[in-house]
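Notebook entry, structure prediction.
Reason for the run: the old model in the group folder had no record of what sequence produced it. Starting over properly, with the input documented here first.
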Amino acid sequence: MTQHLKLSLWDAFAFFLSGWTVCVSVYIHVALLYPNANENLSKLPPATLGFAAFLVPLIVGLLFEPIGNKLGDLVLWIGGRLRSLGGKMCKYIKPTTRNCLLVEQAKNSIPSQLSEAVNPYHWAKDYLSQEKIETPYMAFMSKFGFYRNVGALLLINAILIPCLHGLGTAEKILSLSMLPLSVLYFVRSQRFYRNIGDSTFRNYAILLDRKKREDISKK
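New structure, fully documented this time:
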């Protein structure tokens, strides 16, 4: 029960923060396009504004999640295509688990009849879950989701600014400055994504070593 509560809180936290960034972005666009929008918002009752300030970002975050996910996959796909042009850079854009020895250990622990059908990461993660071992999985996952969504939002705004507000000098500078920021946030998100795998394999190795020691002490 406690574990499910922690997962729900991490999910809500990630969706809420992502939703707030989207809401702030939408508000800025609307305020620039329709200056009277602030007057309409001020007419709403404070209780309604307070309730909306919590519920709306949460719902928006949930709705924006698949968009951020798809744009994140697109960036990974582009990073994969650019691998031959810049292998070192692509290593950060499209991350892999850094310690191959831990991956091999997890792979070797899978029963031979299942080795072809089971991913070592999923095996290690599910094994830790069965043993009720707490890992920072959700902490890393929520940060990964947040930074990925911010990267996706910056990319969307880089496209929307010239479309909605014209092609003036300020708009061009702002739009172009958001592109490297978007890449920066995508790269940041992938670091947390890589940490998810690294942490899972490390905890799995620790658990296997502990069980091995316990078996030796019983003999």
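Summary: The first helix runs from residue 2 to 33.
The old model has been moved to the deprecated folder.
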